[in-house]
Amino acid sequence: MTCGGTDGKVTVRGRWRSARLRQGTGLHGLPTAVALAALLSLAGCAGLTGNPGPKTSGGGTPGTGSPVISVTPSPVSFGNVTVGSSAPQSMSVSNPGTADLTITNVVTSGTGFSISGLSVPLTVGVGQSHSFTASFQPASAGSASGSIAFTNNATSGAYLVNMSGTGAAAPSPSPHSVALSWTASTSSGVTGYNVYRSPVSGGPYAMVSPSRVAATQYTDSTVQSAQTYYYVITAVDSSNAESAYSNEASAAIP
Predict the structure, then answer these.
(1) Which of 1, 92, 118, 222 shows a CA-CA span of 20 to 30 A to 27?
(2) Residue 39 and residue 82 share a domain
């Protein structure tokens, strides 16, 4: 008996003899050559041909990729922020990977820290990014720390971005004030006055009174120590027409 050839056929040489199956099969005379050919096929004899099965490269699944999460800036430092005020920081989450990034949950921790502009679930495509805003609003003076945790399909655990900031005490109200008074305008139709102030003699001036002053006196309580301020007044009529500036008056704050 031989097994070979370039045409993929099996050649079996030998005498024919009858083979009797076990009782109950109802078959007699099975050629030995057929039985041997079947055994050779099962044994993987060289030269036998068949339909090859599907192949994979490198033992993996073809066509798969991996997402990657990247958040900038990271870490985030807000620096000094006055207590009661809010400091925003523009941020971005991007995906430089080779498959879609899916963010299923975002948790912000730390007193005074928050984010906006990011809703979950969020899918970030390959090479794409999504912008959002982080904020720090301290309720008290002192250093603070927090984090943003992104639950996603790129990392086994949450992706963390650390944040820090310092609450700075608001400046104390100035114990000083400037009392201004002036002579009423003799023009007809005058309904009030605007008060202007500048840190430089001759201006430019900025309006310091929050609204039109009906009386001929005004107290400026927003001055700071060791500063000099320069004031002018204008008269305003019922049609909101405004006069030229008055003469300038100065006040030096100790």
Answers:
(1) 1
(2) no
- State both tokens at 208: 């310091």
pLDDT of residue 236: 95
Q: How far is CA 243 from CA 193, 198, 235, in A?
A: 9, 18, 5
Q: State pLDDT tens for residues 179-233.
A: 999 999 999 899 999 999 999 999 899 999 988 999 999 999 889 889 999 999 9
Question: How many Å apart are CA 22 and CA 11, to the nearest integer?
Answer: 27
The structure tokens 């041909």 sit at 49
Number of residues assigned to the chain: 254
User: Which amino acid makes up residue 18?
Assistant: S
Q: What's the DSSP call for residue 213?
A: B
Task: Find the angle CA(214)-CA(220)-CA(225) to the nearest 5 degrees.
Answer: 175
* Intervals of the chain under pLDDT 70: 1-63
Residue 155 shares a structural domain with residue 82 = yes
Residues 217 and 149 in one domain: no
